[in-house]
Amino acid sequence: MRTPLRRQAQPRSNWSQLYQAGPYHIDLSLRWEDAAARLVGQVISRELVSFDQAQVFMKQGANTLKMPLDLSGRFSFKLTSLDDCSFELHIQGEVVRLDGLRLS
Question: How many angstroms separate the Cα of 44 from the Cα of each of 18, 22, 57, 62, 104?
């Protein structure tokens, strides 16, 4: 009896990284949930900042995901792909881009 070959998926690992973007630090973690990835983050500032109007934008190719920050500066995205991603933070009239973001 023959058993069909199974293709071994690449191992997926969780990670955490702290980035500096302008006057802010962005603490990012990638966590795998079943077949999808979740990007969880928090914006950290040394200055007193109001997060009530702040939003983060995660661009994935032609798609853009938008999410407001909670009052503690946290956010979470479910990602469909880890390729061709860019990150922007819109806060207090500024646009801050996170350069060099590699999710995979």
Answer: 10, 11, 17, 28, 23
pLDDT tens per residue across span 38-94: 999 999 998 888 899 999 999 888 889 999 999 999 999 998 778 888 899 999 899
Q: Which residue type sits at 23?
A: P
Instruction: Tell me how crowded residue 88 is: count the other CB atoms within 10 A of its CB.
Output: 17
**Exposure string over 41-60, b if 16+ CB within 10 A, otherwise e:** bbbeeeeebebeebebbbeb
- Which pLDDT tens digit goes with each residue over 13-47? 899 999 988 889 999 999 998 878 899 999 999 88
Q: Which amino acid is at 25?
A: H
